[in-house]
Amino acid sequence: MPLDQTNRTARGLDSLTFRSCLFTLALLAWSPLIASQPAGPPPAQSASYETGRALFAGEMVQKHGFDAERIRSLLGRGSYRQEIIDAMERPYEAKPWHLYRRLFLTRERISGGLSFWRENAPILARAQATYGVPPEIVVAILGVETSYGSRLGDHRALDALTTLGFSYPKRAEFFRGELEQLLLLGHEGQVDAAGAVGSYAGAMGKPQFIPSSYRAYAVDFDGDGRRDLWGSNADVIGSVANYFSQHGWRRGEPVAFRVKVPGALPLGPEVAEKKPVAPNTTVDRLRSAGIQWRDPVSGAAPATLVRLDGPDDEYWVALQNFYVITRYNHSNLYAMAAYQLSQEIKALYGDGA
Description:
Elements: H1 16-36, H2 43-64, H3 68-76, H4 82-88, H5 97-104, H6 107-119, H7 121-131, H8 135-146, E1 155-156, H9 157-167, H10 172-187, E2 197-198, H11 211-217, H12 233-246, E3 256-259, E4 271-272, E5 281-282, H13 283-288, E6 302-308, E7 314-319, H14 320-326, H15 332-351
Parallel strand pairs: 4-6
Antiparallel strand pairs: 1-2, 3-7, 5-6, 6-7
Helix pairs in contact: 1-2, 1-3, 2-3, 2-9, 5-15, 6-8, 6-15, 7-12, 8-15, 9-10, 10-11, 14-15
């Protein structure tokens, strides 16, 4: 899923006195609704969950002019889900590369990508002409995210974002921001804020856009006046391509290539592992350090040396477009799986399989 972590605008509640009054009023207004909820978080978390939700409702009224009763009612439809917290504690990206790769480089995803490309070839070509992103990259992202729409998730976004926003201190501020964006999407008529289903982190649709990415990067590529990331493959394809374009995709340039390194890694630029690193050197400098490859590429191209752990470690030179893929999901494992899947699909499509 795209995790665009740009700095958010301050909420504008700088006065401690005003914030305390707002909290008290929101909590008093919420109290009948709290009493009526049949299900909720465990007792130890109940106070922080309910008071956090009450304060958030008041902020939405003050900041965006939401109707107080309606926003309280809508937020009250969200339910705490312990399984969402549990899932956050065991992300796929914690796996070593050789196990992570097996999750996505499967026959089903490769053949599914070939079918999706054939069925949507004109739209993919139009997206490439518009945004410069090749079809295989867009297709692979959809394959990794939702197997081309066959696995859209089974958590309501409202449940996910209220649970994480009010009961997951590690990243509560981020997820409260995403909850705000979800409610704005609903207010704008883009999604059903109460019913939209997606991932345990609140990502939605075939490309698994989090709400802030939906608002910022989704496009109406079929021209029907809506940005539909569930039912319109045109909107889905255009939105993924636009996301990459907006994050710096370089039209016509390569993504990454595998290399051999000398016995001892050269001193100098940081070697990236699971965590992405923006290009921190150039292709020429890596070659002068003794790193070997055959792929032709401009010596001045910005690059990063990436190590992928496994029984036999792999080393790759990752270029700007690889870094752009990591803006969709902040993981080198994710970006490499998507890239390798794209190459498998492209090979079959080019062979006319």
